[in-house]
Amino acid sequence: MGQGVTLVVAGGWWDQVIPEGSSHPTGSVLWREVHPGLPCGRNLGQFCTQQILCSKNSSLLKRAKSVKPPERRVFKVDPYGFERPDDFDYASYEAFFSRYLVVLTRRAIKWSKLPKGEKQRGQVKRYIRKGIPNEHRALIWMIVSGAQANMEQNPGYYHRLLEGEKNDKLVEAIKTDMNRTFPDNIKFRQTADPCLQDTLYNVLIAYGHHNKAVGYCQGMNFIAGYLILITKNEEESFWLLDALIGRILPDYYSPAMMGLKTDQEVLGELLMERHGVMWTLVVSRWFICLFIDILPVETVLRIWDCLFYEGSKIIFRVALTLIKQHQAFILEATNFPDICDKFKQITKGTFVTECHTFMQKIFTEPGTLSMTTIDKLRETCREKLLSQG
């Protein structure tokens, strides 16, 4: 193949090369205008011109539509290192991804043409909702979450945390969970070279000393692991973890988990208002793991694209969509174990695998859902929980 940029790494076999030769005027002013409080440490104009250059005609889309896969199209291990289960539906996945490849190609072209100035304000949100090209996900997450700004304002801080004295209890808690983190991912096995357990340990131990009020909580290992797989950089993973735990999901992972309990109650209120039924207890894992090991990897990453940009209301949109879409099925349950089983089933199958369609659903199915509404419910639910002791 000629020189270019690999467009898709998420498909396992469709590697498409984007020809170079076009330019794009969008500069770092884009992100300063969208997020005036976030200094842009990396020039997004260079990012656009150097990393997601696309041809300005329809030839790339035509090529994507006409790609003929090799004999072995979907491999046993996905591009992120996860082994596919024995009951994995290869035929359905191939059919899905042959369609999704065209979407990915179109999105890469759109991102390369993102305008600057006033027009981009509404477009950035729309572009992120439609998916960030995977090879540029880490950079966009870093910028829109504020992690990039925090990292640049604190040079050397992460490495000083690693070099400092360690809390023995924290070390023991983190080491206990190392082999439990993604046992189905070959990159986290001790036999891997390099073994991502070492990187994961560094990120978690640094964060535990950075945020002593939280320290370490089960669930953080999976989130940090995903961040490492995407960023391939432990310092960036640390700052993204800080953005999630410190700003986007405050008090989710503290010893009392008041933020998590509050948001479970908020979901209950939203469900009662919309459906007349409360199912919060069975979705706690959705919240604590941010849908990791619950929804397909590509779907989780698309959710996180929006989570880093729009905040925690995205979690409610996903939960409400899953429940509303399968409400009749869930209502067939006659006891709590049956409810738990049905909730496992609704996170499988075509509805959640077709990530592009699923993401469209989460912004239509639940209707209007503002952070103002969520914050008011949080205040009420938190007071209720505190009064109960």
Write the layout of secondary structure elements.
Blueprint: E1 4-6, E2 17-19, H1 29-34, H2 44-51, H3 59-66, H4 90-112, H5 120-129, H6 137-145, H7 147-153, H8 157-163, H9 168-178, H10 196-210, H11 220-231, H12 234-248, H13 258-274, H14 284-288, H15 297-310, H16 313-325, H17 327-330, H18 336-345, H19 350-353, H20 355-362, H21 371-387
Antiparallel strand pairs: 1-2
Helix pairs in contact: 3-4, 6-12, 7-12, 8-10, 9-10, 10-11, 10-12, 11-12, 13-21, 15-16, 15-20
Q: If you had to describe this structure to a student in words, what would you say it looks like?
A:
This protein has 389 residues and is mainly α. The chain has three domains: 4-145, no CATH class; 154-248, Helicase, Ruva Protein, domain 3 (Orthogonal Bundle); 258-387, Cyclin A, domain 1. The protein has helices at residues 29-34, 44-51, 59-66, 90-112, 120-129, 137-145, 147-153, 157-163, 168-178, 196-210, 220-231, 234-248, 258-274, 284-288, 297-310, 313-325, 327-330, 336-345, 350-353, 355-362, 371-387; strands at residues 4-6, 17-19. α9 (168-178) packs antiparallel against α10, α15 crosses α16 (313-325) and α15 (297-310) packs parallel to α20. The longest helix has 23 residues, at 90-112. The protein is globular and about 55 Å long. One of its GO terms (molecular function) is GTPase activator activity. This is Growth hormone regulated TBC protein 1.
